[in-house]
């Protein structure tokens, strides 16, 4: 039985209730007309709601004339309420059908729906999918992706909350970039220059002094004109920061998080995974640790051109990711490839205590993180050395004067995680309404 979305005049049951166990039961369902098959004196309707689909069968000589005429006037995606009796049918894949005694049309959809949600005539090309995104999100496969996304978000929150973490909510309009570079969206904030947040890094660190263990699922923006399958301009990150922690501890957190989420997805998202033809295998702990230098050597062995001291480009990252069947970490990144707030190894001054979590199968980087600088003087010198204006970092530096513990954290791309788990070709498919250099509406 559905909760809240129930009105005795509009619906009392869901499509899922039209099954052989309810043979002979009278129900009132409400939903969208997903498919119409008109055989002349026999009409089959497929009705969709959030619980699933059901078949409504009308025989002309057994159906009230008014019900028959109402059905004949329906169009794809019309919204209806249908009252009738459940009839078990062992020949049906759905195990039962609904024999209607009443059809009420709430909203008659315009004829010639611009896309084929059934994919029986044509497979939607990707440009059409996003041109009509407000309509294509009704596609059962896209619905399955969004339901998995909801499940993964809920599983993430349950994981952290059960382990004593506090969820935080940080500002999204900033006076300075936390990541540096020019790839920022500028905002006029009442006459003052500002940017949309690239990261909540500074605010995570500030929150440590009062909460010690924090997390959030927080939006970020990057004004990059990237066209790779893993880049979008507006996205969410699973953020985490822990006081009195090292890079080793945040690797353990990510291992536990990924495995916990995958367990929940395979348990509660089996229907969606089956629809997407995706099989999930739980990885084993600990995930492999691959130092940066070794990763570069492996890329070279795989026949991909690479520069030893440069970050991984898309071809390198993809080749490296395809070499593994389970998630793995790349560790020990050089200092010149990391942000100012990453701590260095005292024994190896040119190496940071940082890491990337990589998804297998060619999906690539999921997260970046590591141990942070907690010393005021070191951090101030880093900011100056990288050419930033100290005035933009006054409040950030100030908190390091008044008790900042050793700490570590990471940011894990939420949509990247969805893309990997759902086996999507492009990260934009993990967004209900994505934002890319070419897509900013609907």
Please provide a written account of the structure.
This protein has 442 residues and is of the alpha+beta class. It has two domains: 15-107, Beta Barrel (OB fold (Dihydrolipoamide Acetyltransferase, E2P)), CATH 2.40.50.140; 135-430, Bira Bifunctional Protein, Domain 2 (BirA Bifunctional Protein, domain 2, 2-Layer Sandwich), CATH 3.30.930. It contains twelve helices and 18 strands. The strands form four sheets. Strands 6-10-11-18-17-16-13-12 form an eight-stranded mixed sheet. Strands 3-2-1-4-5 form a five-stranded antiparallel sheet. Strand 14 and strand 15 form a beta hairpin. Helix 4 packs across helix 6 (247-268) and helix 4 packs across helix 12 (414-422). The longest helix has 23 residues, at 140-162. It starts with 25 loop residues before the first strand and ends in a 20-residue tail after the last helix. The mean pLDDT is 92.
Properties at a glance:
442 residues; 12 helices; 2 domains; alpha+beta; 8-stranded mixed sheet; BirA Bifunctional Protein, domain 2; OB fold (Dihydrolipoamide Acetyltransferase, E2P); 5-stranded antiparallel sheet
